[in-house]
Specification:
Blueprint lengths: L6 H9 L4 H13 L1 H15 L30
Helix pairs in contact: 1-3
Length: about 80
């Protein structure tokens, strides 16, 4: 198993600031490490949603929890 990714590397990964080779190493580790997946989600929330919103469509309020599904372009079909 690959060593855990540092918070700094995960921040760079979220921002798309890593070289392709480094990004591939982190992605390979994330595929099998739930701990780093959770850390990545926390970092993404902290960094990405501090910026102004770029959406053009208004948000629509709903009375149920949202769901997030991570799709893999190789194995996800239909």
């Amino acid at each position: 198993m690959l060593p855990h990714s540092s918070d700094g590397d995960l921040r760079l990964y979220v921002g798309g600031h890593l070289a392709a080779a480094d990004s591939s190493v982190i992605q390979a580790h994330l595929d099998g490490c739930e701990e780093c997946q959770l850390r990545l989600a926390d970092i993404a929330i902290q960094t990405r949603w501090k910026e102004p919103e770029r959406r053009t469509d208004p948000r629509i309020p709903v009375n149920f929890e949202g769901r997030l599904k991570l799709l893999d372009p190789v194995t996800s079909v239909g």
